[in-house]
Amino acid sequence: MLTQVGWTGASAEQRLFQYDIVVYGGTSAGVIAAVEARLLGRTVAIVCPDKHLGGMSSSGLGWTDTGNKAVIGGLAREFYHRIWKHYQKPEAWKWQKPEEYGNRGQGTPAIDGERRTMWIFEPHVAEAVFEDFVREYSIPTFRDEWLDREKGVVKQDGRIHTIRMLSGKVFAAKVFIEATYEGDLMAAAGCRYRVGRESQSEYGEKWAGVQIGVLHHRHHFGVLKKPVSAYWIPGDPSSGVLPRISTEPPGEYGQGDHRVQAYCFRLCLTDVPENRVPFPKPEGYDPKQYELLVRIFEAGWRETFAKFDPIPNRKTDTNNHGPMSTDNIGYNYDYPEASYERRREIIKEHETYQKGWFYFIANDPRVPQDVQKEMRRWGLAKDEFVDNGHWPYQLYIREARRMVGAYVMTEHDLLGKKETPDSVGMGSYTIDSHNVQRYITPEGYVQNEGDIGVPTPRPYAIAYGSLVPRREDCQNLLVPVCVSASHVAYGSIRMEPVFMILGQSAAAAADLAISRQVPVQDVPYDELRERLLSEGQVLEYSKK
Question: Which of 97, 136, 151, 486 is 20 to 30 A from 197 (CA-CA)?
Answer without folding.
Answer: 151
